[in-house]
Amino acid sequence: MAFLQVQFFSDVLNVASTVNVVLPEANQGIGIQASGKEELPKVLYLLHGYSDDHSIWMRRTSVERYAAAHNLAVIMPAVNHSFYCNEVYGERYWDYVSKELPDTMQRFFRISDKPEDTYVAGLSMGGYGAMRLALTYPERFAAAASFSGAVDITATIDRHDEDGLAGRVFGDVEELAGTEADLLYLMKKNADSKAKPWLYVSCGTEDFLYDQHHVFIRNLARYKWDVTGHDEKGAIHEWGFWDREISKFIEMIYAK
């Protein structure tokens, strides 16, 4: 696999931005299984959590090795503490990750632009981001995954707002319900979409986000989204679980 750290000027953020990208190669080297496919790579947008950045998936998992076997390109952006939103008092990270980033990656690299070849996944805050992308633009993705996702944004902010995240990013948290930042609102709004991605939602039973995980899955099923839920007994909010889950998710999207 080729590993690139891409630095480009973002018009949306008005600042130089960094994205890590993994691209398939014909010869992967010793110990790496190559796919042997020659068509344009499929694409996975892989999102980081609240305490991390664009480098974390490469540092804490074997995602490069998992992608190599499937001719899969992996794109890993950085969004700081934005929850992948346009911050009320800050930057337009939603516009960046949902519009500018995919357009820029398509210009820079020979990767597929077909919805059936496009996926998004993330952990914790990135799980929220992945689900927001999939529920907002269901026609753009074949599948999406949330690992230990902060899928109830109001409950998450109520529990973890030591640094004033709510006011800076979201403004008045009490007004979030029924907005584009509310995943329940999005799943209801787009319930009748003709094209819907398959959604994979997983969490450990000992994770502090486990309760909202289950409510989220029930609501997705209620509004007729194609969702597969997974509870891992004893798992907590940690990288051993997320490494297993990203490997599993990649295998599942190629098996479908």
Structure description:
This protein is of the alpha/beta class and 256 residues long. 35% of the residues lie in helices and 21% in strands. Strands 1-2-4-3-5-6-7-8 form an 8-stranded mixed β-sheet, sandwiched between helices. The longest helix has 17 residues, at 239-255. The chain starts with a strand and ends with a helix.
Q: Could you tell me the radius of gyration in angstroms?
A: 17 Å
Structural class by helix and strand composition? alpha/beta
**C-alpha termini separation:** 24 Å
Number of helices: 9
- Assign a percent range to the helix content: 25-40%
What sort of overall outline do the alpha carbons produce when their principal axes are compared? Answer: globular
Q: Order of strands across the widest beta sheet?
A: 1-2-4-3-5-6-7-8
Helix/strand order, N-terminal first: EEEHHEHEHEHHHEHEH
Task: Quote the beta fraction.
Answer: 15-25%
Tell me, rounded to a whole number, the average pLDDT: 93
User: How many β-strand runs?
Assistant: 8
Can you summarize the main beta sheet?
Answer: 8 strands, mixed
Low-confidence residue ranges: none
Question: Which helices and strands occur, and which strands form pairs?
Answer:
Elements: E1 2-10, E2 15-23, E3 42-47, H1 56-60, H2 63-68, E4 72-77, H3 93-108, E5 118-123, H4 125-136, E6 143-147, H5 153-159, H6 165-170, H7 183-189, E7 198-204, H8 210-222, E8 227-232, H9 239-255
Parallel strand pairs: 3-4, 3-5, 5-6, 6-7, 7-8
Antiparallel strand pairs: 1-2, 2-4
In short:
With 256 residues, the chain is an alpha/beta fold. It is built from nine helices and eight strands.
